[in-house]
Design brief:
heterodimer; A: 110 residues; mainly beta; B: mainly beta; four-stranded antiparallel β-sheet; 54% strand
Chain lengths: 110, 115
Amino acid sequence: DAKTTQPPSMDCAEGRAANLPCNHSTISGNEYVYWYRQIHSQGPQYIIHGLKNNETNEMASLIITEDRKSSTLILPHATLRDTAVYYCIAGAFGNEKLTFGTGTRLTIIP
Amino acid sequence: DAGVIQSPRHEVTEMGQEVTLRCKPISGHNSLFWYRQTMMRGLELLIYFNNNVPIDDSGMPEDRFSAKMPNASFSTLKIQPSEPRDSAVYFCASSYRGRGHTEAFFGQGTRLTVV
């Protein structure tokens, strides 16, 4: 799996959009970008995944650059419940082994 | 479905004792994973099963750790003998390995403290 790099921490004001970057410059053509988050004391939770097109679901949007070397997870209207550690993972489609890095600790400020 | 169910939620044991962690995956899922999380090492994959067969146990730290999946609805992770450095939160996750994307669902974890 390609290595991913994320900032260790970020703050965002409640109600604003939270933009979480991820660098995956060595990603290969068959690797998807997956995002999970872990709220304190809970197990990780799947958010979204994508290959090269932008994706949106009820939780978030995923923007992947044209060269696929980086991506941004967008939480459009952050709430206090979005405070969590967010993990960006690159993995081959159907590869079940999720290799978690250190993630970004996102704090939503009231 | 109630999701992935792990038991116990908390376990405190003395060094040298045997510890057994249990997991019930989501019904219909055919892959099961055991992870360990510590402050120092983050989330580490220990072992995963597909159709009850261990596929990759390269993350199992040493022979004191063993995992079984006797059927599609139950798995155990055993540590014998336990040591203080085994203290961590252990997560079980399950997914459906088919032709599509495999979203993993995690349990609430078992917090193990070895004293």
